[in-house]
Every structure is written in structure tokens, then in C-alpha cells.
Amino acid sequence: MKPAGPTTCASRTSKDFSQPAIKEEPANWRASPTGMPIRNTCLSLRGGSSQAPVSEIPSTKTYEVDVHGFLVDPDQWDERYAFIKSLEMGYVRGLTERHWEIIYFIRDSFRKNGVVPTVYEVCEANRLELEQLEKLFPHGYHRGAVKLAGLKIP
């Protein structure tokens, strides 16, 4: 059985809501280690110049996430988690070096201080305007940057 891909009520062709909105995805979709469907495509991990199909990235490790998709154990985090989570979140071009700088800043700050830095601390330390951060992480600071960093704000 193929994984069911994300869909919305808007993708239904009629106002008949008796049929489920979830549809089977084309063959170029597969399930990620977190259970979400991702498109088999070529993307690179952290700033790398070489690209490999996602299906060729070793997938022996699994990640435990909560009902909202946040990593349960921050110590499980690695770049592969952030990469795959970014695909699930729709970052079809992968993560840029600037994304990685922010992700690592958040993780380093958490490791040093025991708390996730505020959005303002992240912007100030990385010389970013709030609008620039919003463009990098369109899902928002908490549901985007912090989630990709494998952390969550209580």
C-alpha cells in the first residue's frame, strides 16, 4: 500500500464530503522514517555540493516524534532528521547553509543554557530581521526552526 500524502478539503473535486480527502500519491512518494510521505527527489544534506536521491539516504535509524511532529528525545537529533523533516514540511529545495546556521545556533544555545532561545535572541545573534527569519522558516519559529532543530518549546 502506498503512503497517503497530505491533502486538504480544497483538493476535493466536489462538495461530497462522504469520500475521504486522502488520496494515494504517485509512485515517486515514499514514507519517511517518521511515517510522513516524502517525494523521492535529489537534494543535498548540509551545504553539500553532491546530491543523492532521498531514497538512497540510509534509513536504518528511526525517530520518535510526538503527535505534533516534534522530536521526543532531542539527543536523537542529527542532520538526517532535519533533512527528512524539512522535506515533510515542504522545503522542496532542501535546507540552505543559512537554515543550518540557525538550526545549529538554536541547538547550541539550548545545550549551553538549557532553554530554547527566543525568536528575538536568534534574530539578534544571527543579524536577521524577523521578516528574513519568516522567509527562511515559513511555518514559523516554533513549528519551523525549533522543530527542525529537534527541540520544542514547552
From TrEMBL:
Question: Which cellular component, as a GO term, is one annotated location?
Answer: cytoplasm
User: Is Protease found in the keyword set?
Assistant: no
Where does this one sit in the cell?
Answer: Cytoplasm
Tree of life domain:
Bacteria
- Keyword Cytoplasm among UniProt keywords: yes
Q: Which GO terms describe its molecular function?
A: sulfur carrier activity
Q: What is its main location?
A: cytoplasm
User: Which family does the record assign?
Assistant: Belongs to the DsrC/TusE family.
Question: What is the recorded name of this protein?
Answer: TusE/DsrC/DsvC family sulfur relay protein
> Which organism is the protein's source?
Abyssobacteria bacterium (strain SURF_5)
Q: What is the lineage of its organism?
A: Bacteria, Pseudomonadati, Candidatus Hydrogenedentota, Candidatus Abyssobacteria
